[in-house]
From TrEMBL:
This is Transcriptional regulator. Residues 12-80 form the HTH merR-type domain. SMART domains: HTH_MERR. Keywords: DNA-binding. PROSITE patterns: HTH_MERR_2. It comes from the Bacteria. One of its GO terms (molecular function) is DNA-binding transcription factor activity.
Amino acid sequence: MADARMNADTPVFAIAVAAELAGMHPQTLRQYDRIGLVVPGRTRGGSRRYSTRNIEQLREVAQLSAEGMSLPAIARLLDLEDEVRMLRHRVAELEGALRVERESRPGVRVFAAGSTGQVTPVPSGRRIRRSTEVVLWSPRAGG
């Protein structure tokens, strides 16, 4: 039975298996690790362990390199892909938190910023002191 904690980033493959899966020589994987292009996880003893995401990256490196892209350009592309993945994860987290917040405050439909920058929900029907607060968001009627 698969462990629930296993995911695309779980380092499981030894270098020989990873090299075979990626269609590369193990020495190529070592070189990519040394230059920081595709960096595998390590065991306590220091052995490299590759994840399925590492294997995908190795295949992508091989394809892009065959198309003439330089290794520094490929490294930048992989960094940007990691950043996009991280940002998408963060957006999903924030959307979930916003959904929970909206569900916990069904009567709150307007938010305001105070003079010190704090954001406060403003219940429907409450007047906002214009001298110290600015309305940031208000839904359209019927929406």
